[in-house]
Design a protein that fits this description.
Number of helices: 7
Structural class: alpha+beta
Number of strands: 5
Number of domains: 2
Order of helices and strands: HHHHEEEEEHHH
Helix content: 25-40%
Radius of gyration: 53 Å
Strand content: 15-25%
Distance between the termini: 161 Å
Largest sheet: 5 strands, antiparallel
Length: about 240
C-alpha cells in the first residue's frame, strides 16, 4: 500500500495541470509583456523614431554661415539697370553756365546795332535795334537753363526771344522767338487785332504780348522788373 501512493502523487493529470497552468500563465504574460522578437522590434522602432526626431530638429547654422537668400554685400540685384554713361559736357557752354546770371550780350543793352535772333522751325529774325532787357537764372544745377530777351527795332516793333540751353554737348539748344507789330500791315493781322481789341478794355500793347509769350514765372518777373513797373498790377 505504501509503495502505490507515491505513484498516485506523480500521476499525469498533475503534470497536465501544471502544464496548463504554465501555459495559462504564459498566455497571461503574453498579453502583458511582448515576446523577445516583439521587444526587439519595439526597441528598433524606438531607435528609428529617435533618429527621425533628431533629424527633424532644427540645426543651428554656423556663426559664419549665411541664409540661402542672402547675398554678399557687394552683390547687386540682377534686375538693376546699369548706370547710364556720363554725358559729355560742352566746354563753351560750361563757361556760359559758370557766368550765370550774367549773359554774353549784357553789354549790348540799349545799344543800337544789327541783331539776328535765331528761332527753330521758322526763319531767323534780322533787324536793327536795341536789346531792352535780358534775364537768366543765377544757377543751373541740372545743366539746363533759360535766357529771356526783349528787343525793340528801329521800326517800333518788339522781338521776344527765349533760349533753352543745355550744358551737355549732345543736347542742342532750343530757340523760340515772336514779333509784336503795333500796326500790322496785312489785312488778316488787322482783322485779328480788331477782334482782340473788341474783347479788351484797352488796346493790346507790346507788354501784353510779352506776358503772353513769357508768362509770369520767376525768370519772367525778373525780366519785367528790368523794363518798367507797367508789368505790375496796380490796385487802388
Amino acid at each position: 500500500m505504501s509503495s502505490e501512493r507515491p505513484e498516485e502523487l506523480y500521476e499525469p493529470p498533475v503534470r497536465t495541470r501544471q502544464t496548463s497552468d504554465a501555459k495559462r500563465d504564459s498566455d497571461s504574460a503574453g498579453d502583458k509583456a511582448p515576446s523577445d522578437d516583439a521587444a526587439r522590434h519595439e526597441a528598433t522602432t524606438v531607435l528609428v523614431r529617435g533618429e527621425i526626431l533628431r533629424d527633424q530638429e532644427p540645426k543651428s547654422p554656423p556663426k559664419d554661415a549665411q541664409p540661402k537668400d542672402a547675398q554678399p554685400k557687394d552683390a547687386q540685384p540682377k534686375d538693376n539697370k546699369e548706370k547710364a554713361p556720363r554725358k559729355e559736357v560742352s566746354e563753351a557752354k560750361s563757361k556760359m553756365q559758370s557766368r550765370l546770371p550774367a549773359l554774353d550780350d549784357d553789354a549790348d543793352v540799349g545799344v543800337q546795332k544789327e541783331h539776328i535772333v535765331v528761332r527753330d522751325g521758322k526763319p531767323d529774325l534780322a533787324f536793327t535795334g536795341a536789346l531792352l532787357a535780358s534775364a537768366a537764372p543765377s544757377s543751373a544745377p541740372k545743366g539746363q537753363w533759360q535766357e529771356f530777351r526783349i528787343y525793340e527795332t528801329n521800326g517800333g516793333k518788339h522781338v521776344f526771344s527765349k533760349v533753352t540751353r543745355s550744358v551737355f554737348a549732345e543736347e542742342r539748344d532750343a530757340y523760340e522767338a515772336e514779333v509784336f507789330d503795333p500796326s500790322p500791315s496785312s489785312v488778316p493781322s488787322q482783322l485779328l487785332r480788331s477782334a482782340r481789341d473788341l474783347t479788351r478794355t484797352r488796346p493790346l500793347t507790346w507788354m501784353d504780348a510779352a506776358v503772353a509769350f513769357y508768362g509770369y514765372d520767376p525768370l519772367a518777373k525778373a525780366l519785367y522788373r528790368k523794363l518798367s513797373g507797367q508789368f505790375e498790377e496796380h490796385i487802388g
